[in-house]
Amino acid sequence: MLELQELISDDDNSEDEDHMKKDKVYKTIHKRGKGTEKWLFTVEEAVEKIGFGRFQMKLFVICGIFSASDAMEMLLLAVLSPVLRCDWKLNEWEVALITTCVFIGMGIMAPTWGTIADRYGRWPVLLLTAIWISYAGLLSSFSPTYPWILFLRGCVGAGIGGASQAFTLFSEYIPSKYRAKTLIIHQVFWALGSAFEITLAMIIIPNYGWRMLAVISAIPLAISVLFFKWLPESARYLVAQGKSKVAMAELRKAGKLNKSELPSGSRLYITKQAKGGNLSDIFNKSYLRTTLQLWVIWFGTAFTYYGVILASSEILEFHHTCKAGDGGAKVGHLVDTDCKCNLLSHSDYISMIVSTFGEFISLPINWFMMDRFGRKKTIAINLLGAGICFLLIQICTTKVIITIFIFGVRGFATGIFNAIYIYTIEVCQRFYI
Prior knowledge:
three-stranded antiparallel beta sheet
């Protein structure tokens, strides 16, 4: 017998929280029979009934702007490394450590942001991370020494660790029929942010330097905060926290914007199992194998995608020094052999922008494959394709051919990310609020 638990309060918005807690009454319903179906429904049922419309399009744009701005801060690393190597005469390991610090910050703070979001909500976490990333990104432009750039970019990475809450919040308000397709299309914002950052770098770095680029890259996230006024809190989170009336208000706003009605009923309910996230759930004997497999796939996905986008400048620098063709002509130019300083040329920036379009092309292809072959086969095909293209990058050839190989890796890696994000949400839906 399924046990359902509903939190009933005289006033969920009471200013006196202590008084509100005393007035809360828990009512346990041992069976959701004909009598209760008329007045009980879940958040999932409400989202399905509301359908897809203007409300989801509003979230699509707001969360998309956040995603594009987040991508700009991440892609900044790809164009920053060659410049800092030349300006500060850095060794290769020192350049690599800058990127490493960003991912150390992400690794430490990502689970922390998740815990905070489960306790205090998605909305405040997104607001805090937007301000955090923008502020740390702005400060990094004033870095006087190498240790400071390490610390401040690490702070940026710590903020980026919480940016995925935008994807989570958006997915919770999408009806299941449209979820996979909408989340795939949503990735276009990340690709746009990536291409825009490389374009800015091509214009700004040669004329104004990397510090100006760091300042301008921090602005879009700061602007995105202005749109948070129209960003709702997660209805799932609100119900799990006993704020059913607030959740109902959010769902009614969504229904009104979509010109649709909520399911017939007067109250939301939530199962005990879904009342809150618990990290130990993913290590349950029934799901341990799935958890470990997802970890391995996520490691490979992140290694592939971030590896290629952040190594693009290094790959192009390497091919400046290699010989291509039977004539042995040099590809590109070598600026300073003593400090191994290869500033990116205009054609290098163009190559990086062109390779970014691999992400745009992969979106409709990935859409088709997930519908035709399913999630797991789509992930496998993309992993195989990305691996082959990565191997081809090792060949010393012309810049055009190398750009095509990078284009391929970017496309396949984006396909992996799309599929694994959606697959993880669908498989682990029982674990999160």
